[in-house]
Please model this.
Amino acid sequence: MQIEELYQQYKSKMRRVADVKNALAVLQWDQETYLPAKGAALRAEQMATLSEIAHEMFADAELEGILKTLSETNNLSFSQQKNVELTLEDFNKNKKYSAAFVRKLSEATSRSYHSWIDARKQNNFSLFKKDLKALVELKREEAHILGFENHPYDALLNEYEKGATVAWLDGIFNTLQKPLKELLDAIMQKTQPNNDFLQQHFDKDKQWAFGLDILKKIGYDFEAGRQDISAHPFTTSFNAHDVRITTRIDENDFSSMTWSCIHEGGHALYEQGLPIESYGLPAGEFCSLGIHESQSRLWENCIGRSLGFIEGNFSLMQQYFPGLQEVTPAELYRALNKVQPSLIRTEADELTYHFHVMIRYDVEKKLIEGNLSAEDIPAFWNEMYKQYLGVKVPDDAQGCLQDIHWSHGSFGYFPTYSLGSLYAAQFLSYIEKQHQDLQLQIIAGNYTGIHQWLKANVYQYGRLYSSEELCNKATGEPLQLQYFMEYLFHKYAEIYQLRK
Amino acid sequence: MQIEELYQQYKSKMRRVADVKNALAVLQWDQETYLPAKGAALRAEQMATLSEIAHEMFADAELEGILKTLSETNNLSFSQQKNVELTLEDFNKNKKYSAAFVRKLSEATSRSYHSWIDARKQNNFSLFKKDLKALVELKREEAHILGFENHPYDALLNEYEKGATVAWLDGIFNTLQKPLKELLDAIMQKTQPNNDFLQQHFDKDKQWAFGLDILKKIGYDFEAGRQDISAHPFTTSFNAHDVRITTRIDENDFSSMTWSCIHEGGHALYEQGLPIESYGLPAGEFCSLGIHESQSRLWENCIGRSLGFIEGNFSLMQQYFPGLQEVTPAELYRALNKVQPSLIRTEADELTYHFHVMIRYDVEKKLIEGNLSAEDIPAFWNEMYKQYLGVKVPDDAQGCLQDIHWSHGSFGYFPTYSLGSLYAAQFLSYIEKQHQDLQLQIIAGNYTGIHQWLKANVYQYGRLYSSEELCNKATGEPLQLQYFMEYLFHKYAEIYQLRK
Model:
């Protein structure tokens, strides 16, 4: 009885914190979509205030007492126990940060962000160098504050993907590197598919309407979310009943918006599928960034860029876009999956993408180790791009200044993109085992089998299981690279007519 | 030195409270414009949490100490001193409310709001009766908590219009009633202008574009605000650099959207004109609801519904709307100013509008006095409508259930609408004194003279002066009814060819 009461107190305190964090997310969403120009300065102040309040609310001594009592009782259900355990973990982590350090980090991040904007705009890395260097120092300090066993970078990786370590990721990237490079080399020997027709005029309003159609088809609930326009597409959730996505439209590029919709749609299906009754608790939150990214990549790449998906939606596409009248589904399929080493990560195909990640992972690891100095990033970056992708980086704007992550202090984030692809391929393989006719379902425009599998194996657990546990539970084994490699080899063997 | 530091502390505490209140306003704005249906429940919880936090932050003992020290020093500038004085007043008022009473009131309001929605939808007052009765009891209690000298209703009026009393408002409405009734009777003897052409098809997108054009012309800054669609038009401010308005479009009615844009635009010009450097302080806030309403009504009615304004924008209107090709500016002017006793306050003309207000004022006064019981409102209402306006109320949905205010617990709000008209007419008269060629400026589409006068005499002072003080400062005299009466008599004499 008393325990049940305490648990209710814990829940309502957590809901209050969630209310503030989600209000903050609304302010951020508004900032990216509708905020008038002059409103930016005070909006930043308002967001900083809400962040501080959320932080203070979570650092509550009464909450700590409740958590300790609850963590010592045996009278909780499994999910209650996991909620308490994970919240206590978060609480203790939160406590490690002194107010002074949080302020220092937030100021350094804010400075870095603005100097990155300038540096990128003026294509001049030296404008970013000093602030980046200071930020790296603080992140090294943060790694020590958080603590680690083997490598300081582990502590930072852990913030995005619990349990991820340098040792584990080194293993993954080392294993991937050679076969991916061989596959790339083999592909580059072959004739490239024609994708010129993707760059013609595609009416803005029709792209918008088509995007909404596709989102509805894959199961996105517009009663519990909406799509808007922003400079960079993103997904944000204020709770499972209000999960919003954004997109951007390029009238001269067909592939850009639609597959971005599917990507964000995949993220959003996950958030809409989280148990609303656990709002504010770990059970109501996503598992990890790697698992989140597996959801967007599963839908965007494994499903959205499959021949079956294109066949299933081809007549709709042709209805919307007369420019596709002369194209066949197979031609569109090949065009959308063209492999081409390039400079920009976010525009990369499913194969070369991972070299972009590996390079960033290497840079970050060395920065955090102290084996690379911020000012040496451009040279190292450009050398790696030559080595991995054979491309010459013409300038830093198209090189090491292209991503926002470091300016935000997000060191350890990039690897989760690759993990997402790996998990997605493994999940897909198990969905196919359960649905022998999966390709036929996809051709028929029926995605409920996939959606049901994800609900049953991913969405419903929130973050009660780590990504490793979740993967084991869903597929009976930990993450295995073979699924991704088989997926990729099979796909490109077909497209590029490679010998198996 | 120490005082200056204390004042800075006071300022930063107030800014933090403002940050939370404005975040709350963003959540409300989003709720009215873009919130998906299922998001409503948790949004209500998030808003309740932010309200509580704002309340707690303002009830801070440290702030109280600072305010007391600051209020006893002589080392502050005039505006600093006023800020402190007004904040202390707010602080002490806030303290009068017990947490228990605030919760009771908030629960009662929430219940009333929902039963009002049902009652209105089902056109059944009895569904609202019980909750309204309970709410009236709480408002009577609130009047005693707040304290008053002569009449309990004074305490509630004071919440919207500082200094307003029953004695003062009785005087105003008693003075207005007879001449307005005589004017109405005289008008009703005359031939009514034709306004059929207002009800034809007016393209939605063109109305939207025209609304934006007009807003720009009157000086609304789209870099510091935006317009969106909502069920009921409103203005909301997150700070002077982010003041948003909403509108709705009726494709079969020309007058509805455009003059609503001008109305909200008038509110928004005021908010955009408040001193941004006083964000969070009384000096950065609007004076009173009566003054706020004077701004919307000045622009919508005194300017927007003037012949000069219509002449000045007529060719633009004809460009947008072919349906106006056969109409003259004078015909449009008369159509837009047609006087017609009617049932719905928000659709009333500038004359009969005030009878709608007087009836609500009487109902509220009697409710708070205890001389009218909630269940007797419909009969009293219908009787008053017959007496004042000569119209028969067919049902309560078109009668006493039409307004949202009571369901929100907003007793004392309605009179500020009439005060707005009175202040507007007085301000207009003084603007005309300063700009002898005002009508020519308006015909030329030049509204900067008006805008400048309002900046200099209204906007810049925030709420450092009460409405009475502000009026004295701006016009050299307190509120005088003669300006409004002259304005109205002059306008309708011209339109209806009345003998002066």
